[in-house]
Amino acid sequence: MNDLPGEFGRHLARDRRRSAHTVRAYEATAVRLIQFLGEHWGEAIAPAALGKVSAADLRAYLAHRRGQGLGNASAARELSAVRTFLKWVGGDDASPRIKGPRVKKGVPRPVAPADAVALAEEVAEDAAEPWIGARDWAILLLLYGAGLRIGEAVGLTGAVLPLGETMAVTGKRDKTRIVPLLPQVRDAIDDYVAASPWPVDRGEALFRGAKGGPLSAGVVRKSVQAARTRLGLTDRTTPHALRHSFATHLLGRGADLRQLQELLGHASLSSTQIYTAVDAAHLLDVYRNAHPRA
User: Fold this and answer.
1) Looking at 94, 123, 152, which one is the last position of a domain?
2) Active site residue 192
3) Is 97 a catalytic residue?
4) What is the pLDDT of residues 206-263, one digit of tens each?
């Protein structure tokens, strides 16, 4: 039983051609599920017992994970991983049907960090080829981790390579700005370049479509739309919403408005100031939900 999650991971990599990131995430979910069931049932878990997991068991597991701080989109992905694991162990009937979490529609809000990562993971996992999954993962991390517009991301060329701690980005009105690159973002781009079947020349598009031409922003938007539906996120969860989240989360952690204006490539400070209202609304929600006298 100890190596069952490892065997599951090898199946995903070998037979399902899942990315290394997805394999790690699904293996970790399998480990967590087995540990939870052992405590929940009060007995050691044998592989045959996994075929007896009930809808109530899965709801209890999700409640346990939500208690550990899992957001709605992350919980939906966790449930998807659990279902995949149970079906692998015991067939289609081994995974009981329960409804995944849903997000209530409301006023626009930044995408939570865990949900932004879950969205990127879902898009990457659903890709037709591993290299396309690596491409989509890199692009969405650029939007969320560096604040790029989707048009700026797909407009990058091979001239940005090799990557350093910063990247020059040409935005609206041909204005160039310098954005910092987190190590995770650099690694994601490097992984995509290594996996891509197309050569990366300085004057050619960095991100390629399935047939080798420059990637269209519409392809990314379509993939995000499908992923957010599966995760139960609202239709406001778009590629541009990841850029908004980048800005709002930086502001919430004390970033200066002028610095944020430079990072986003806004022509005027008034464009950046909208995030002060968004952040204030978010803080008010936290206050109302947490303060005993709110």
Assistant:
1) 94
2) no
3) no
4) 999 999 999 999 999 999 988 888 888 877 788 877 777 766 655 555 555 455 555 5
Our count of domains for the chain comes to: 2
Domain span holding position 87: 4-94
Claim to verify: residue 52 and residue 158 sit in the same structural domain: no
**Residues 215 and 145 sit within 8 Å (Cβ to Cβ):** no
Instruction: Indicate if 221 belongs to the active site.
Output: no
- Candidates 149, 208, 228, 244; catalytic one: 149
The residue from 21, 59, 240, 282 that is catalytic is: 240
- Structure-block tokens of residue 238: 């778009």
Q: Per the confidence metrics, is the pTM higher than 0.70?
A: no
Cα separation values, 143 from 113, 117, 130, 178, 243, Å: 12, 11, 20, 14, 5
* Catalytic residue (one of 177, 208, 249, 266): 266
Kindly state whether residues 123 and 88 are assigned to the same domain: no
Is residue 253 annotated as part of the catalytic site, yes or no? no
149 has catalytic annotation: yes
The mean of the pLDDT values for the chain is: 78
Catalytic residue among 10, 14, 99, 172: 172
Specify whether the CB–CB gap between 227 and 126 falls below 8 A: yes
CATH number of domain containing 118: 1.10.443.10
